[in-house]
């Protein structure tokens, strides 16, 4: 077992169409844009962490494309209605999945007691 105590601070996803992805995370999920470099990246505030969207090909060490992002919402039914039920690929009583513009899974969780 390692002596390192890692803490999650953020995630980065790669996109062919960075502007379309930025619009989705701004308009559909309502995230706050922290920083951007046009044509390179857009960084969003996600509470104690961050989400960075990056243009494919801008890094010299690209990652695989598979990703799932988890977001808690206070009222799952209201979030589904606001986004549009037709945009979800699956929904259950306490969670629902939709895709961002390039197919990454966005899983909305009903925020319950911790």
From TrEMBL:
Highest taxon of source: Bacteria
Domain VOC intervals: 7-114
Pfam families: Ble-like_N (PF22677)
Stored Gene3D superfamilies: 2,3-Dihydroxybiphenyl 1,2-Dioxygenase, domain 1
Protein name: VOC domain-containing protein
Organism: Candidatus Acidiferrum panamense
Lineage: Bacteria, Pseudomonadati, Acidobacteriota, Terriglobia, Candidatus Acidiferrales
């Amino acid at each position: 077992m390692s002596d390192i105590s890692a803490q999650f601070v953020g995630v980065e996803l790669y996109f062919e169409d960075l502007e379309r992805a930025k619009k989705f995370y701004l308009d559909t999920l309502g995230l706050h844009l922290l920083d951007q470099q046009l044509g390179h990246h857009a960084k969003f505030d996600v509470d104690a962490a961050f989400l960075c969207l990056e243009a494919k090909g801008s890094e010299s060490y690209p990652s695989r494309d598979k990703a799932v992002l988890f977001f808690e919402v206070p009222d799952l039914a209201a979030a589904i209605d606001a986004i549009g039920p037709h945009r979800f690929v699956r929904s259950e009583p306490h969670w629902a999945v939709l895709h961002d513009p390039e197919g990454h899974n966005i899983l909305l969780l009903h925020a319950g007691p911790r």
